[in-house]
Amino acid sequence: MAAILLAEDEAVLRMLITDTLEDEGYEIDVACDGQEALAMIEKNDYRLIILDYMMPKMTGLEVIPKVRSLPDRKHAKILMLSAKTQQSEQDRVMAAGADDFMPKPFSPMELVRRVEELLNA
After folding, report:
1. Tens of pLDDT along 59-70?
2. Which one of 7, 27, 76, 108 is CB 3.0 to 4.6 Å from 37, fit for a cystine?
3. Is the pLDDT higher at 75 or at 8?
4. How far apart are CA 32 and CA 117, in angstroms?
5. Contacts of 29 (CB under 8 A, 6+ apart)
6. Does pTM top 0.90 for this prediction?
7. What is the rounded distance in angstroms from the CA atom of residue 41 to the CA atom of residue 6?
8. Which of 54, 53, 8 is nearest to 28 (CA)?
9. What are the structural domain ranges in the chain?
10. Alpha-carbon distance 57 to 113, whole Å?
11. Which residues contact 58 (CB under 8 A, 6 or more apart)?
12. Angle 33-90-4 from CA coordinates, rounded to 5°
């Protein structure tokens, strides 16, 4: 199965997402803030990176262009999770280089569907 990085600062949501995706057979690494996520991305080759928009130290929006600037990580798919659901925010996320945007709250099965779509694209 594909290696996935989840960067989410809310412990309960981090556990829910991790459990949901591990139940589907995915291998998940976890970061609690954007800075930790970027350090992990620089060391590991993830096929999918799930980023929370609002995180301490570095937001998901700040992480995206840094990932896209890494030559050997440009292939990674990025799914942004956010409670900021305005169209202008979604546009900013997609313009920054994300592959998909998922508003919070979301159903676990919708998350699984989106993950599968991104990994099979």
Report:
1. 999 999 999 999
2. 7
3. 8
4. 25
5. 3, 4, 5, 6, 40, 44, 46
6. yes
7. 11
8. 8
9. 3-120
10. 30
11. 33, 34, 35, 37, 38
12. 45
φ, ψ at 64 (rounded to 5°): -55, -55
Query: Letter for the amino acid at 28?
Result: I
Tokens 């995915």 belong to residue: 26
How much is the mean pLDDT over the chain? 94
Supply the DSSP string of the chain, one letter for each residue: --EEEEE-S-HHHHHHHHHHHHHTT-EEEEESSHHHHHHHHHHS--SEEEEESS-SSS-HHHHHHHHHTSGGGTT-EEEEEES---HHHHHHHHHHT-SEEEESS--HHHHHHHHHHHHH-
Q: Which residues neighbour 105 within 8 Å (Cβ) at sequence distance 6 or greater?
A: none
CATH code linked to domain 3-120:
3.40.50.2300
Token pair, residue 96, equals 């920054």
Token pair recorded at residue 50: 């799930």
DSSP lists the bridge partners of residue 78 as 49
**Nearest Cα to 7, choosing from 72, 69, 59?**
59
Residue 67 carries which side chain, given as an amino acid letter? Answer: V
